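Inputs:
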Amino acid sequence: MAGLDDRLDYVLGAKAAEPLEQHFGIRTVNDLLRHYPRKYIQGSTVLSEDDRPPQEGDHVTFVETITGVSARWTNRKPAKMYLVVNLGYREPKLTATFFNANYTKNLLAEGAKVMISGEIKKFRGDLQLTHPHFLILESPNGQEGKGSRAMVRLSAAAKDADGVTGLDAFRRDSLPIYSAAAKLQSWDIYLCVRQVLAVLDPVEDPLPDWVVRRFDLMSEDEALRAIHLAENAIERDRAIHRIRFDESVGLQWALARRRYGELSESGPAAPLKDSGVRADLLSRLPFQLTDGQLEVLDVISTELAATRPMSRMLQGEVGSGKTVVALLGMAQLVDAGYQCALLAPTEVLAEQHARSMRNMLGPLAMAGQLGGAEHATRVALLTGSMTAAQKREVREEISSGQAGIVIGTHALLQDAVEFAQLGMVVVDEQHRFGVEQRDTLRAKATGGISPHLLVMTATPIPRTIALTVYGDLAISTLRELPKGRQPITTKVIFSKVKRSWLDRAWERIREEVERGRQAYVVAPRIDEDDDARHPDDGDTDAPKDREGARQATAVLPLYERLGIRELRGLRLGLMHGKLSGEEKDAVMTAFRAGEVDVLVCTTVIEVGVDVPNATVMVVLDADWFGISQLHQLRGRIGRGEHASLCLLETKLPPTSRAGRRLEAVADTLDGFALADLDLAERREGDVLGRDQSGQGMGLRLLSLLEHREIIETARLLCDEIVADDPTLSNHPGMDRLAAHFVEHERIEYLDKS
Ligand code: ADP
Ligand code: MG
């Protein structure tokens, strides 16, 4: 008998085990049984890799009835006979060709049921298999069990496994199909699985009894067998459900360990003080905090005061005022003698944060300077484009502890940056960073401290993603915008349909500028050499002209053209990623100061840029952007007291998928609704960056898009168990389920552009 941890070479013999390890890294009984079927043949389906119909070059395996047999002769001399066999009544027609006709013609009679395996070729619209492997399962003339040598050998091998006669292993209503390799076919794997299951000891259930009963689950032992061998679809579905449930619980238990476990007592406690930077900052804010901000702040201050490090995500619509909340949190740490680091995805944004935080802090940020307040600190800025000398100076300010608040881009992550007493890490626009980057920064703390972590995002996270990808973070949400904000109207301009609408857009910009407002014109590319990737690549209903011929607007030529034509006479600024730090800075400063009327730019302004006087945005070739990206872009306007207008231009027709996507963005300002739509629109692989090998998060049967209910159930269940077992130490079965996820890096959500 065998257990899950036994090695396969021991159970199956080295010869059978070796290819499993070589092709799939399968080493143990457990590894093999977790190589779940990818599909099941029900009756006679021809299966290709996905659900799509088979294509030229696909390797397929299926069971089918022979509906016609004809002998033909080759043209060449001497002519040779070959056999063409029709398989089923299919559209397009499916045939198999055999050249050793003398042998096969006696075997392959009309009415025989055969298992076939081979590579698809297309010929005049029909699908063909040339010399496929076959095994006769049923035969009108007594030929069952015969077929290609390899498959006959297979069926003979099956006989030894578990007492089932060889053919019966295949002669069933349903057959599992496994991810296979050319040298290791689905059938080989199937037979290994049968052989292993025949000797497998009963499997212990990783879930507590009461859980299995409460959720009416199939037992682990039954499920592990049925997922491979059940013939009955209902039983099989129960098995799949059970294993999905396991995955979900395993993942949630791993996340619970991160939330409740390890780090528990190593956080820098920063109790609230009556006087200090935080208190003074509160009293000098130029506006009243919204109720939402106050609520979130309350939660955050409590957590910052505790010795358990905070791990929190603050999500809120663009413009909801997350920055000031983060700043007040950082001030609390500064008052307790700690330093804080704020990581921003772009230089423009880091700059802006430094400027606005210094502004809000005023004398509180002027330690050691004339006019500095009593408990003042300093705000340091570190970006990649600074000169070496400037960087050195800033690093000195950081390592000496003079700078209480350190703001920067990726430059902050470098080894040379050392903190005297890091107590809190803030990551702005979280989706632009990977987990490793966040952890790198956190690791700069000294003295065994785990800094508090606050990550902020304006890209709303759909609930299943929040519970999984970000499941180790607690989540706060700012839904309300500060009072007095004017709504943004969004319109789609289908410029191929109505050219004049685009002209009207330029007029609108002029009108706004005349009223003293400012505008953004956004395009996908910098110059002709810049190949922006289209979000719709592979979108089958996209017009043909997309391929190669169609080029997205580039800002360099656009800037030239607008200056002499459509927007002649207005003061234009140019902004894109290839400018130097100084150039970017100069343009942003001019735009902020109102010295530039229209900023012609790429998506460098996508995140965080805050110029409340800007009220119009025209996005050219808007179909080049994803839903969340457009929502972010649009968030650059509507930040002040004036009504704003966002115009999304596309050359695609309204009926295209991209056209509909743009209409959806125009229809709502609700970032959460758009995030759900975004998630539904894209294939899971795109959203989650999960790699082909099923690594990534390590999920096999659980889909974050489809199994929200199971995910939520598992989350609640784990919380319930933790409440009873706060040290998480009495559930070895759950630990086993979780182990798989602890090893894997988490997948990243959304674009990493
Ligand atoms: P986001 O959440 O998108 O990062 P910001 O933090 O940049 O938004 O805030 C957007 C603007 O709103 C900033 O100019 C900020 O000073 C302002 N703001 C923040 N909170 C309030 C408030 N309670 N009342 C008025 N304006 C506010
Ligand atoms: Mg922001």
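Confidence is low (pLDDT under 50) at residues 536-549, 684-695, 744-753. Flag for discussion at group meeting.
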